[in-house]
Amino acid sequence: MMELRRLTGKNVLVKAVGISYTGILIEVGAETVILRSPSGHREVPLDKIISIEEAKGGGPSLPPSPLKRAGR
After folding, report:
1. What is the pTM (predicted TM-score) of this model?
2. What angle do CA 26, 47, 23 make, to 5 degrees?
3. Which residues have CB under 8 Å from 4's CB, separation 6+?
4. For position 45, what pLDDT does the model report?
5. pLDDT at 56 over 70
6. Secondary structure string (H, E, C) spanning 4-72
7. CA dist 17 to 41, 62, 69, Å?
8. pLDDT band, residue 2 (cuts 50/70/90)
9. What is the C-alpha to C-alpha distance for residues 43 and 36, in angstroms, rounded to an integer?
10. Which tens digit of pLDDT belongs to each residue from 5-52?
11. CA–CA distances in Å: residue 32 to residues 1, 27, 56, 62
């Protein structure tokens, strides 16, 4: 679990049963992993995940996170 937490905030590739997701790793919870992708947020159940690794390349083109805005 600690290995996954070091990937928080980074562009990752999540391979789950039958599908792969690419996005910014937002949170690793007790039952799910939450990603921010160009099409929105994705919540993937941990029991369906085969692997999570740092994605190669530039990553998805995402607008800045509203949580990181300065001065608010």
Report:
1. 0.74
2. 30
3. 25, 28, 33, 52
4. 95
5. yes
6. HHCCCCCEEEEEECCEEEEEEEEEECCCEEEEEECCEEEEEEHHHEEEEEECCCCCCCCCCCHHHCCCC
7. 18, 25, 35
8. low
9. 9
10. 889 999 999 999 989 999 999 999 999 999 998 889 999 999 999 999
11. 12, 8, 23, 22
Token pair listed for 2: 């600690």
Tokens of 63: 């607008």
What CATH class is the domain 2-57?
A: mainly beta
> 61 — phi, psi (to 5°)?
-90, 100
* Token pair 């994605």: residue: 55
1, containing H or E segment: none
